[in-house]
Amino acid sequence: MRITILGSAAGGGFPQWNCNCRNCAGLRAGTLRAKARTQSSIFIQPDAGGDGLLLNASPDVLQQIKATPALQPGRALRDSAIAAVLLIDGQIDHATGLFMLRERTGPLPLWCTDAVAQDLSEGNPILRVLTHYCGVDRHRIRPDGSTFEIPGLAPLQFRAIALSSKAAPYSPHRDAPEPGDNIGLSVTDPRSGRTLFYAPGLGEIDAAVFDAMHQADAVMVDGTFWTDDEMQRLGLSRKTARDIGHLAQSGPGGMIEWLGQLPATTRRLLIHINNTNPILDEDSPERAALTQAGITVCEDGMTLEL
Ligand code: MLT
Ligand code: MN
Ligand code: ZN
């Protein structure tokens, strides 16, 4: 399978439109060695050149399609290589792009959990609004580790597990987490026998999550924040990374420590990187620490073959 990183930034993108933090201001001024990034999404194709699955529909999806010719193969008057969309949560940065796909010919095949379908029908009723356009053909994901297939994407096999993270602020159950608010997804190509584990929003690594990470050949996980109090220290929020469902990279029990426990051959990648995170600065000591630990920081346009 081929995996294309369409957007590697967290909500807001990099630089964020209203932000003048060191990273955002430095990128605009050209004084920081860093790359601009769009909001969180990847594309997985069983075979390069064929149809694939859009994982998360970013508000930047139109820009991402323009930047990625594989998404627009031009085989018919109206055409797209997006065979289906799968949402790992119902947050703005992962769901708003559904509106941009409304011109689709025929209902959009959409894979998500019941918790996410409910949030996107009630708190933020995107799915109801879309019935006035292309409509959605919704398929249920059960976040119980069972294997499922997605029509048009054979022979890829999918498994979802419930993660401890957070539902969106507009979720009717924002403060009463339900299994399925956020999922981690394992994608296996039986031809190569190789597996990707994808979890851009990951608040806590329990035994089931670590097991899924351990079984994968590549893990592409939450790279939102370097420190738990990153937003507080900058005076940008009162909330910690943990409060909004993200495990920070540094320190005891942080993502770097967890990734260090995986087999030496596992590819380790961080995605969904917030614009405040010092790892975006390619000359920072934090970035050097990741390189030292064999951890890659995803960039838009990057591809991976598994
Ligand atoms: C998150 O991942 O915590 C959210 O997407 C943040 C946001 O976009 O508001
Ligand atoms: Mn997000
Ligand atoms: Zn910023």
Automatic annotation (TrEMBL):
* Gene3D superfamilies noted in UniProt: Ribonuclease Z/Hydroxyacylglutathione hydrolase-like
Pathway it works in = Cofactor biosynthesis; pyrroloquinoline quinone biosynthesis
Task: Please name the Pfam families in this protein's record.
Answer: Lactamase_B_2 (PF12706)
Q: Is-annotated flag, keyword Transport?
A: yes
Q: Which domain of life is it from?
A: Bacteria
Could you mention a single GO BP entry for this protein? pyrroloquinoline quinone biosynthetic process
Name the UniProt key words of this record, in alphabetical order. PQQ biosynthesis, Transport
Residues of the Metallo-beta-lactamase domain: 53-273
Q: What does this protein do?
A: May be involved in the transport of PQQ or its precursor to the periplasm.
Q: Which family does it belong to?
A: Belongs to the PqqB family.
Name of the molecule in the record:
Coenzyme PQQ synthesis protein B
